[in-house]
């Protein structure tokens, strides 16, 4: 089942806030609440976020820095996949990869030629996931010590 991206509103906010990763993944992925707090804390990052749905059920959360002027080391861009969380009960079904494909479609339509993201290195982390999707290391580290990777958005 393909995912859809929906705005977070009063009717789905509690369900989206309840999404979480497995305890061993928490060092790699911040909670939805923390992500929304970051969106408020860093308006200069031009946060764009959506709930991820499979059918009628919320299964994840995604947030980007949307066409932002980079301000290293804290603000990466212009197109930066800032947060991606798939709920622990829904992992392993291809939803994460589908979200990235949807994000690529959206930002490519806006003229993006590259999508950046970062991850905390370590065993059990998302490095392999991003590598399988075609992201390659940039050789840079962001302000939080995360490895920066890039996906070329060839037309």
TrEMBL record:
Organismal lineage: Bacteria, Bacillati, Actinomycetota, Actinomycetes, Micromonosporales
Domain of life where this protein originates: Bacteria
InterPro entries: Acyl_CoA_acyltransferase, GNAT_dom, Sper_AcTfrase_N
Pfam families: Acetyltransf_1
A GO term, aspect molecular function: acyltransferase activity, transferring groups other than amino-acyl groups
Signal peptide: none
Stated name of the protein: N-acetyltransferase
Organism: Virgisporangium aurantiacum
Domain N-acetyltransferase: 3-155
């Amino acid at each position: 089942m393909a995912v859809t991206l929906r705005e977070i509103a009063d009717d789905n906010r509690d369900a989206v806030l309840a999404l979480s990763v497995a305890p061993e993944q928490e060092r790699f992925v911040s909670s939805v609440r923390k992500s929304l707090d970051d969106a408020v804390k860093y308006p200069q990052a031009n946060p764009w976020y959506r709930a991820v749905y499979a059918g009628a059920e919320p299964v994840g959360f995604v947030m980007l820095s949307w066409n932002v002027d980079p301000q290293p080391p804290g603000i990466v861009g212009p197109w930066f996949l800032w947060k991606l969380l798939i709920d622990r009960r829904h992992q392993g079904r291809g939803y994460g990869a589908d979200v990235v494909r949807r994000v690529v479609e959206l930002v490519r339509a806006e003229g993006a030629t590259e999508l950046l993201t970062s991850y905390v290195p370590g065993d059990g982390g998302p490095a392999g996931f991003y590598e399988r999707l075609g992201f390659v290391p940039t050789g840079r580290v962001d302000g939080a010590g995360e490895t920066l990777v890039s996906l070329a958005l060839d037309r």
